[in-house]
Structure formats: structure tokens, C-alpha cells
Amino acid sequence: MRGLMMDWPLTLTTILERARRLHRKREIVSRTPLGVHRYSYGDYVERVDRLRTALAGLGVGPGDRVATFAWNSYRHFEVYFAAPCMSAVIHTLNVRLFPDQLVYIANHAQDKVVLVDATLLPLFNKIRPQLTSIQHVIVLPDDGKPVDPANGLDYEELLARSAPASDYPAIDENAAAGMCYTSGTTGNPKGVVYSHRAIVLHTMVQVGADMMGMTAKDTLLAIVPLFHANAWGLPYAAVMSGAKMVWPGAFLQPADLAPLMETERVTLVGGVPTIIGALYQYLRENKSKHDISSLGRIFVGGSACPRSLMEGFRRDFGVWISHAWGMTETTPIGTVAAIKPHLENLPPEEEVGLRLKQGLPAPFVEIRIVDESGKRLPEDGKAFGELQVRGPWIVSGYYRDPRDAESFQDGWFRTGDVANIDPEGYLQLVDRTKDVVKSGGEWISSVDLENAIMMHPQVLEAAVIGVSHPKWQERPLACVVPKPGATLTPGDIIAAIKDRFATWWLPNDVVFIEAIPKTSVGKFDKKVLRDRFKDHQWPE
Ligand code: ADP
């Protein structure tokens, strides 16, 4: 017997329509080089409608890729809904990638149109001659200056002369809505194509109270870039809920973010640990200057949240950071740390330990861990192996890429992360398969070591890498950035962590460096460190 329900496509047009009907008065605030810009969802939707007409006038049709090269601001976000709601595909380019990678990505995706922040033109114009499929460049005049026609079309002029589109094309829920490339820590970046259905289901689950719990009363500050895994889906969730949105533009320094949080009464923040860590330090040092008492939730993901950051935010500002795990390939939410009722009121040490885990799988997402032969491992919180995942918003194949075979096993996506799962179902990431230190046939978690080192009060940041060793294949080397004025020796670092690990886990050496190199999305770039220290001489 079949259900007798309407066959209703799950497309982003429904979310946009809801905003049009119900959330007209909510505000969207953007920090721009000219100051703070604000308008309403009503204005937003009207401009999205105009943009749909404008893009169609430039020949953008179903399935065409509309690329963006921009910071988080209202104009960029207009493209986010305009492209998919006219059955085209938004493709966010990561402005921090190397030029060669950007050229590869834009050409591989066959982007037809690209919308570029005026302030990013110097960067964009360097790669422009090598882009083979782009037919139109549209400039988003974030600097407030007239657009030089040599650079492209003026976004504001295009909108002004385009009538708002009044209806939508019929869109198949499985049609592509968006596209994003992984940042390609090894080999060329891989393209992930999100369907309308995947994004809609992801959004519905994301707003749940045990997930990111977004409501119309929230004010979202998405520090995570729109080009980093859909800004974790936060903006879609905001539009569906009618939350106020605050876009930081290119102003990602704590001294810029803090006043924005204060004046806009931000309740919910999403960002990677490096940025949230810098924000925390700043807020702590300037505590009397900024009232951030509206803040209710901070979501941190992309790399592991350091314990000191989790504890510090709670101690100094009364807010627990919520840890979440995901990937470009998982739209991105895989797991979110929520505390089950019977695990509340644990002793403080255990509570932090639980919150530092990456959390419980989102509804509809299934996770498992397997050993090197692909055999499922017990979920006892101890055994660790490769994390695999499946579900309605998990990638089923990369866009025109031969590397699929190695990325899937029996319908499960192989994440390349190493993790354990405890009997309560909490996921804990141990490392990435390529970062784990392979010592004498055993694995040592670089992440555990660096987190322990970062607990030292004189340490600013630390990364641990595996460096080749004549006897053990690899041994851990700790690369430590001391705080200004610190007086540290390698022995101090080892002494501070030696009681927490088996002796054979301890780094064989410690080097002090000025900064940990970061990837385009703010993660420790261990590839660069491994290169730099590949010939490191171990002490006797
Ligand atoms: P890239 O693969 O280019 O780094 P992604 O942003 O898609 O870009 O990264 C996904 C990876 O980030 C995951 O596979 C995992 O290794 C790491 N990651 C994401 N969230 C967390 C987290 N909460 N803790 C530790 N690592 C995380």
C-alpha cells in the first residue's frame, strides 16, 4: 500500500518563499569596507528575485554553474538563493586557495558566470586569463566605487535594470543546487555537488534543538565563510527559521567581530577553532569593553576544539562551545555534541571530556569505524579506525573525478578520519589517516598530543607531526609556538604532558617555531610542517 501524500519536491524555493511570506521584517546586517549595511529579509528576497532575472538575461540556464569569489556579505548571500532558485548551481570559490587550485576548480566545474567582490579583484584578475569557461564577470561593489567596465558588469546596475522574477521553474529535488570543492590537501581538489533535497533535509535537521537549534529569535554571526562547506548550512537554517543574520565581510579580526557581536546582540556563532580561539583571547583581554551577554551558543568545527578554549569560554563567559564534525562531503553536518540527559551533571573533568568529543550523529546520518581490512570495529570508545558515513546528505561520488573507487566502501563514504565511537554513540576523532604518527606498526594520535601541549599556559599553539625515524618508521615531533615572553625548553613541554600518555607516545623532540602554517580554511597545515622538518635530526 502506498502512502497518500502529495509528491512535494524538497527544493530551496520553499525556504525562500517562507522567508518572503513570514520573515519580511527580520534584518540582515553586513560589515563592509564602507561601514555597517543593513536591510530586511523583504529587501533581500526582492533583490534575489531581480538577480534571478539578471542572471537569466546573461544566459544562465538550468544546471549552469554560477561561481562566487567573495567574503560573507549580503550580496554574496543573494547569489546563494538566486542561483539554485532559478535551477542553476551556486559554486563558491575559496578565495584563500592558491591561484593554480582556483584555476583548476573553476575550469573543472565549467563555471559560466562569476561574481567577484571589488576588493578581491586584484586577486581574481591574476587568475582570470586562465579561466576557460567564464562568459561574464560581475563585480560586487563592496568598496562603494563605480565598477570599471574593464573588470566586469556592475552588480548593482544589473539589479536596478532587472524586474523581479515572479515565478520559479519546476525544479527536481535531486537537481544540483550548489557545489563546493574540498581544499585538496593531497592532489587536486575534488568537487562535491549538493542537491536541493540534500540541503533541505540538512536544514530541517540542523535547526533541531539537539543539533544547532536555530529559531526566529536568534541572531546568527556566521564567521565560517560561505565558501567553506556552505558555511556549515547555517545561512540556510537562518533563512528557514527567520533568524537575524550578521555577516562579518572580510573583517575577521577579533577587534572587528567583538563590537559586531555586542551591537547586534548576536546569540549564535559558528567558526573554526583558530578564529574562535583568537576571539576568545581578545574578549578575555578586553572583558570590560564588550557586553556579549546575548551569546548563547558557539559552534566550532573544521578541526578539533582545544580543551583550553572549551574550558576558557565556559569559565570566562558562561558559554559552552558546541563541538561539531563534518566535511565538505557531508554538506557538512555529520555529528553535533549534545549531552544526553543521563550524562548531565558529570564531574567537571568528565563533562569537558564528553563535550570535547565530536558528538552524536545527526538524524539520518549513520557512522561506523572499520579497521584497515574494512572490518567493522567495536564501539567501545577505545578501538579506533577509519570513520565511514552514509546518509541523505553524504556525497555519493565526486564530480567528474576518477578518485571515487578509493573513496567508498559498500555504499559508505570513507572520510579519511580516524575515530572511536563509545557505547553511548558519541564519536571521537583521533586523527586523520594521513596525520596519525605511524610508529613501529602502532598509531599515535597527533591531535591528542597537540591538545595536551596546548594546555600549557605558556603555549600559544602546537602541532605534532610524524617525522621519519630509522628504527620506528615515524616518531612524533612537536612544533610549538610559545606565547610572547615565554621561557620554555623542550624538556618543559615533555614534562607537562608525560603523565598523560604512555611513554612511547611522547614526542622525541620539540621545536619552537614562530607560527603554525594554516590551510585556506584555517586548519593546521601539517603538510607544510612535514616538508619543513622532513630531515629533522632526532636527538640521541
Ligand atoms: P578539508 O578536507 O579541505 O580540510 P573540510 O572542511 O571538508 O575540508 O574538512 C573536513 C575535515 O575536517 C574532516 O574530515 C576532519 O578531519 C576535520 N574536522 C572537521 N570537524 C572536526 C572536528 N570537530 N574535530 C576534528 N576534526 C574535524
Report how far the terminal alpha carbons are from each other: 74 Å
CATH architecture of one domain: 3-Layer(aba) Sandwich
CATH homologous superfamily caption of one domain: ANL, N-terminal domain
The parts where pLDDT drops under 50 for at least 5 residues are: none
Q: CATH topology of one domain, what is it called?
A: Rossmann fold
Structural class category: alpha/beta
As laid out across the biggest beta sheet, the strand order is: 2-1-11-10-12-13-14-15-16
Bound molecules: adenosine-5'-diphosphate
Number of helices: 15
Overall outline: globular
Total strand count, please?
26
What portion of the residues fall into strands of 2 or more residues?
15-25%
For the record, the CATH class of one domain is: Alpha Beta
Query: Mean pLDDT, as a whole number?
Result: 96
Helix content: 25-40%
Structure description:
With 540 residues, this protein is α/β, with parallel strands linked by helices. Among the domains are: 12-24 and 39-198, ANL, N-terminal domain (Rossmann fold), CATH 3.40.50; 366-432, Luciferase, domain 3; 437-532, 2-Layer Sandwich (GMP Synthetase, Chain A, domain 3), CATH 3.30.300. It is built from 15 helices and 26 strands. The chain has a 9-stranded mixed β-sheet, with helices on both faces. The mean pLDDT is 96. The site of adenosine-5'-diphosphate has 22 residues, from strand 14, strand 20 and strand 21.
